[in-house]
Design a protein that fits this description.
This protein is mainly α and 165 residues long. The protein is built from ten helices and five strands; from the N terminus they run E-H-H-E-H-H-E-H-H-E-H-E-H-H-H. Helix 3 runs antiparallel to helix 6. The N and C termini lie far apart (33 Å).
Length: 165
Amino acid sequence: MTPVADSSPLVVLAKLSCFDLLNRLFQCICISQQVWNEIVIAGAGLPGSSEVASATWIETKELRRERDLASEQQAYGLGPGEMSAILLAEELGTGPLLIDDYRARKPAISRGLAVLGTVGLLEAFYVRGYLSDLRSAFEKMTIENAYIDRRILNRRLQALGLPSL
């Protein structure tokens, strides 16, 4: 199982110092050239940039249907990174698609793609014993201005028998 990632989970995990845990969960992650450009080129010097650039387990792939990117972006109102991640996941037929943006999740799911966001990744790290303190990671997410509703985080903590934020 080789996931395709949008920029948000990669950047947020870098901010949380959990980026390398991805490689414990997945041997390889694919990203589109557009996602690479967002994180490494346009985001040079920002969290996630050096991590993605140096991760030998992240593979950048060109879209076969790049000509469809602009029209698909316009149809869904998404950015090039989000839409290219969806298209690449469709092309590769692997999974899951690592993506956070709610507006991007809808077309991904409607296309039959399995989606997993940063919260789900952190939970997976915790359940597998790679992350010892999920509550602190969730708290740090809110401090790092990740756009997530605290109620969602508290529901996930409660489901795992952990105290709320």
